[in-house]
Amino acid sequence: MIVKxxxxxxxxxxxxxxxxxxxxGMAAAVxxxxxxxxxxxxxxxxxxxxxxxxxxxxxNVIGFPKGVTGVEFYKTITDQAAKFDVHIxxxxxxxxxxxxxxxxxxxxENGEKxxxxxxxxxxxxxxxxxxxxxxFLEKFIDKGVYYGxxxxxxxxxxxxxxxxxxxxxxxxxxxxxxxxxxxxxxIKGITVNxxxxxxxxxxxxxxxxxxxxxxxxxxIFEKSNIVxxxxxxxxxxxxxxxxxxxxxxxxxxxxxxxxPEAAEWLKASGINLxxxxxxxxxxxxxxxxxxxxxxxxxxxxxxIRSGSDKRIQVAAGEGSSAxxxxxxxxxxHPEIKSYYTPKQIQLKSNPCKYAWQKAADGSICxxxxxxxxxxxxxxxxxxxxx
Length: 386
Prior knowledge:
Largest sheet: 6 strands, mixed
Mean pLDDT: 80
Radius of gyration: 24 Å
Distance between the termini: 35 Å
Number of strands: 25
CATH superfamily of the largest domain: FAD/NAD(P)-binding domain
Number of helices: 9
Structural class: alpha/beta
Low-confidence stretches: 1-8, 339-386
């Protein structure tokens, strides 16, 4: 039996869709839009910026000789993106990418649909969970133990951080941890105890290492690990190192590494990942294009890419390079035209008729005319030429 009904479908259509609003994603978006491409950035979080948004002082990015905070840096980038009419959609976590014909169809967790001939994955990283921290967070979340250093903690908990000689602990040896240590140490009455698994000089930028080693309010515990976090009166009170040293502290800020963000849906979308969950590209997936993934037409840039240098300026550079890769890809596929959809795109089977129209915002939409309930997910899109 064929049941006749109508269902309004809207697909937001672009030339390039960038997934992730960090340095790589925003650089890609600005470069693409500056070349007259219609670009959307889909950001899972409430604001674009990635992990660097929480940086207190970025001093090694071109164009900011006096340094810049993460918030200021990303405001500048989003203003630049707005100049080129980049559409930035926040709170838009991606659920999957599907390849249909020469196009990529993206479904967000909120149900929205997007399509483009090319996609750039730039989802970045998220804090790496530490077992000892996770155990403590179960009982004392936001009570002295944090992943990163939330600005609201500095604004509202300063008096608590200064208690008991003002000792705080900071875990990690990357640039973000160095910037956070210097910010904390600049607050009167606070002493920072940096716990580093290895040696600072092997991971952190030299300009930060020099400032940290010479700072009188920063103590460094290299080749050390935290094995226990103790609490008192529902608040962090001390940490214990693997050499037996116990240090009274009022807070613990963890910057101990990061893991790929969104690895699960990337894998489900057919994108090849390495053992750690980073996206393989280029020769690793038999592509001549350095930033192309195992799915043709889907590219990857920034920290989420396997083998990339985890630096903000490198991520931005890769985001820009992704646009060159897209030009090369489009050159190898003359059948794909910018902002063009083929007349027939076969999704699965049992096609039914669609009537399509173009909305004022450039999206495309259509009505389902008739469909068998047994094949409600199988249909064919019949799209007009632009």
